[in-house]
Amino acid sequence: MMRPANLCMMDCKKLTLYLDGVINDLPKTLEKYNVEQIDTNILQLQYKPSELNVEEILAALRHAGIKLKDISTEEPDLEDIFRLLIKQKHRTHEAA
């Protein structure tokens, strides 16, 4: 049986935003997305595509006057999910 943590891992993307310019402080409008400022011109956040459309994030950036130079996304591949399942199965056997 697949546990919610596994489902969360499959439904999670990391979005890295490379800005066209620098910002010193994150606008308040981005707080609800848990955006992390990696550098003065790089922002990063994780989101669940089933709960949030990336266009909503991009619209919030536009509304805040932030212009993008590039975007990259990362999501877990099957190997990551397999490793998580094996790790959880191993923990279950140790606890028994």
Structural class given helices, strands, pairing?
alpha+beta
**How does the overall form come out from the CA principal axes?**
elongated
| Count of helix runs | 3
- Strand-and-helix sequence, N→C? HEEEHEH
Low-pLDDT residue intervals, each spanning 5 or more residues = 1-7
Radius of gyration: 17 Å
What strand order characterises the main sheet? 2-3-1-4
Strand content: 25-35%
Total beta-strand segments: 4
CATH architecture of the domain at 12-76: 2-Layer Sandwich
Largest sheet: 4 strands, antiparallel
CATH class of the domain at 12-76: Alpha Beta
CATH fold field value of the domain at 12-76? Alpha-Beta Plaits
How far the N terminus sits from the C terminus, by CA atoms, comes to 17 Å
